[in-house]
Amino acid sequence: MTLAVVTDSAACLPPELARNHGIDVVPLHVIDDDVAPTTARPSVAELAAAYTAALNRADEVLAVHIASVLSGTIDNARLAAQELAAGGRSITVLDSGVSGGALGLAVLAAREAGDARRGAARARECAARSRTFFLVDDLAGLRRGGRVDRTTALMGGALGIRPVLAMSAAGITVAETVRGSARARRHLIAQAVRAAGGARLSGPRPPVEPVRLAVHYGEDPAQGQELENDLAEAMAQAGAVVDSIMRSPIDGAHRVHLGSGALGVVVAPWLGRGR
């Protein structure tokens, strides 16, 4: 059996990495209007076309998409799969529960499996155990999109306070609050180090398991490279075991909500290859 994996642009997979792994990426859309840009899910037709193309080169197709709490993409994915099922073609559709690099790393984990069943299990495990931390210059976009509440949005504009945000299947929460951009960046890295099993502030230290990391940036690639370098150094100093780091800009749909100055780090388990 051969397996093809399809995802969407919320995975923030670098194009070359997606090509090298044979992963098809369906774009989420950005719609500009006179007030503020908005986002739109891929259409049923777009998803069906991607699934059909994948079926033409593989025996099975696994579609792993952005969390349903963040986008309606999964609804259209299921409709597209139902249309193809009527013609006798089967697609496994998975709501990842995550977005960004957490989705991207889950998709890579799925691609390393030999069939859709094991691929879905690997994607679920990777996504469920991943941790996402990020910073934004302005919380207004997240507030407009209903991603954070009014209290959190107001906090981000008060007296230079910069919240370090965390994203999980439950939504977006404040991991901690600090003053100043430079300090917030240091705490972003520290949160990731702790999530990776590096040096802890107190208590016994558990065995360190290998992780994969993703680093995201807005419009400035230099910021992404600098964050990757500092993160790798901090991980090494703390004794974390890093298998790989994926660096990429946030996609257009994420940028609508996060802004062009966003920085993010994802920590996900390395599950080994093909189990």
Notes on the protein architecture:
By secondary structure, this protein is α/β, with parallel strands linked by helices. It has 2 domains: 3-128, Rossmann fold; 131-269, Hypothetical Protein Tm841, Chain: A,domain 3. Helix content is 39%, strand content 26%. The strands form 3 sheets. The protein has a 6-stranded mixed beta sheet with strand order 9-8-7-12-10-11, with helices on both faces. The chain is globular and about 55 Å long. It starts with a strand and ends in a 6-residue tail after the last strand.
Task: Kindly list the characteristics that best describe this protein.
275 residues, alpha/beta, Rossmann fold, Hypothetical Protein Tm841, Chain: A,domain 3, 2 domains, 4-stranded parallel β-sheet
The outline comes out as globular
Which sheet architecture does the biggest sheet show?
A: 6 strands, mixed
Count of helical stretches: 10
Q: CATH first level of the largest domain: which class?
A: Alpha Beta
Strands in their spatial order, largest beta sheet: 9-8-7-12-10-11
- Per the CATH scheme, the topology name of the largest domain is Hypothetical Protein Tm841, Chain: A,domain 3
- The rounded distance between the terminal residues' Cα atoms is 15 Å
The structural domain count equals 2
Q: Class by helix and strand content? A: alpha/beta
Mean pLDDT: 87
Label the CATH architecture of the largest domain. 2-Layer Sandwich
In total, how many beta strands? 12
Note poorly predicted spans.
none
* Helix content percent band: 25-40%
- What would you report as the Rg, rounded to the nearest angstrom? 19 Å
What is the N-to-C order of secondary-structure elements (H for helix, E for strand)? EHEEEHEHEHHEHHEEHEHEHE
